[in-house]
């Protein structure tokens, strides 16, 4: 069926193809244009290897948490607890190392396991109790904020953080590449393989595409949805751990802002190379757009409020592009 505009006029095949191309590649074209403009305006500071490495390093944590969120969104749900959860995990891992004197690897394993448990709780509430995922995860996130304040008494855990824990984020153990970039590449690469190259990934996409049809095909829809939340929770935990390592402290609200960044990136990603479909590579591109935008604004000395305006505008544009892509694909 031909695509029809609101005024009743049918689009020609050429116009429809042009719109489809725009919906799929506008984000990548916009990213390249933004880089080109910033490079032209600041040829000494912006287009350098050190600056690009810095951008990727700074964006690596947002990429990890956005990658986890992508799994939850692919299966048709939203996880609003991730930012609050990451803040709790940062406080907890620091406390376990400093106050409880646990070995760093053990503390990390415990916190990531807790992230999986929080994801499991979110998934069970949504699938078994039939609570809307927005309400469920927002409620869980609020509880996690309370637990973070209860554990730390609202005071950042700073004193006694060992150097070995700081080097987890600040070190360069592989060919001089910042550790966070390496960890991000491993996590996103693993998620991409899971979704795009495994039988389980096909089930994940089937559940997100049409849960009723997936159930008729014998897929355990509730199990797949819970898995999406568990992966999201584990990525939030890893993000909180790495952020605490980068900051050298556990702070109750340190990662809260990652929620908006992750959602903006995921929706931008759904408008990247596909017709309104959520996917891991797209989320990676979405974070790059936000990261390079922030970097350019900082280089040119833009006031802090401009970053919030930029990110909010990006989210609106992202949702619009995703909707356009879906409209074209379904027409």
Automatic annotation (TrEMBL):
<dbReference type="InterPro" id="IPR001851">
    <property type="entry name" value="ABC_transp_permease"/>
</dbReference>
<feature type="transmembrane region" description="Helical">
    <location>
        <begin position="226"/>
        <end position="245"/>
    </location>
</feature>
<dbReference type="GO" id="GO:0022857">
    <property type="term" value="F:transmembrane transporter activity"/>
</dbReference>
<feature type="transmembrane region" description="Helical">
    <location>
        <begin position="257"/>
        <end position="273"/>
    </location>
</feature>
<protein>
    <submittedName>
        <fullName>Ribose transport system permease protein</fullName>
    </submittedName>
</protein>
<keyword id="KW-1133">Transmembrane helix</keyword>
<keyword id="KW-0472">Membrane</keyword>
<feature type="transmembrane region" description="Helical">
    <location>
        <begin position="21"/>
        <end position="43"/>
    </location>
</feature>
<feature type="transmembrane region" description="Helical">
    <location>
        <begin position="134"/>
        <end position="153"/>
    </location>
</feature>
<feature type="transmembrane region" description="Helical">
    <location>
        <begin position="280"/>
        <end position="302"/>
    </location>
</feature>
<feature type="transmembrane region" description="Helical">
    <location>
        <begin position="173"/>
        <end position="195"/>
    </location>
</feature>
<dbReference type="Pfam" id="PF02653">
    <property type="entry name" value="BPD_transp_2"/>
</dbReference>
<dbReference type="GO" id="GO:0005886">
    <property type="term" value="C:plasma membrane"/>
</dbReference>
<feature type="transmembrane region" description="Helical">
    <location>
        <begin position="308"/>
        <end position="328"/>
    </location>
</feature>
<keyword id="KW-0812">Transmembrane</keyword>
<feature type="transmembrane region" description="Helical">
    <location>
        <begin position="82"/>
        <end position="100"/>
    </location>
</feature>
<feature type="transmembrane region" description="Helical">
    <location>
        <begin position="106"/>
        <end position="127"/>
    </location>
</feature>
<keyword id="KW-1003">Cell membrane</keyword>
<feature type="transmembrane region" description="Helical">
    <location>
        <begin position="55"/>
        <end position="75"/>
    </location>
</feature>
């Amino acid at each position: 069926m031909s695509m029809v505009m609101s005024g009743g006029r049918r689009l020609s095949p050429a116009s429809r193809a042009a719109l489809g191309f725009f919906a799929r590649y506008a984000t990548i074209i916009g990213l390249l244009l933004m880089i080109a403009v910033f490079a032209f305006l600041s040829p000494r500071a912006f287009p350098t290897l050190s600056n690009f490495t810095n951008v990727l390093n700074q964006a690596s944590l947002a990429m990890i948490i956005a990658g986890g969120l992508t799994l939850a969104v692919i299966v048709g749900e939203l996880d609003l607890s991730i930012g609050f959860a990451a803040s709790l995990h940062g406080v907890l891992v620091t406390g376990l190392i400093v106050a409880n004197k646990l070995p760093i690897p053990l503390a990390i394993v415990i916190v990531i396991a807790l992230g999986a448990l929080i994801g499991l709780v979110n998934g069970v509430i949504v699938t078994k109790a039939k609570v809307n995922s927005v309400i469920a995860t927002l409620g869980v996130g609020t509880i996690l904020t309370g637990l973070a304040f209860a554990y730390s008494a609202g005071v950042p855990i700073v004193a006694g953080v060992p150097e070995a824990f700081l080097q987890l984020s600040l070190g360069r153990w592989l060919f001089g590449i910042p550790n966070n970039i390496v960890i991000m590449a491993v996590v996103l690469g693993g998620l991409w393989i899971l979704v795009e190259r495994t039988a389980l990934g096909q089930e994940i996409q089937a559940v997100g595409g049409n849960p009723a049809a997936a159930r008729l095909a014998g897929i355990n829809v509730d199990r797949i949805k819970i898995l999406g939340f568990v992966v999201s929770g584990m990525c939030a935990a890893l993000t909180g751990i790495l952020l605490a390592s980068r900051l050298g402290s556990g702070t109750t609200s340190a990662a809260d802002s990652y929620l908006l960044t992750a959602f903006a990136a995921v929706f931008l990603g759904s408008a990247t190379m596909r017709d309104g479909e959520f996917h891991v590579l797209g989320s990676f591109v979405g974070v790059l757009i936000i990261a390079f935008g922030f970097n350019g604004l900082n280089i040119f000395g833009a006031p802090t409020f401009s970053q919030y305006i930029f990110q909010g505008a990006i989210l609106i544009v992202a949702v619009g592009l995703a909707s356009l892509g879906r409209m074209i694909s379904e027409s």
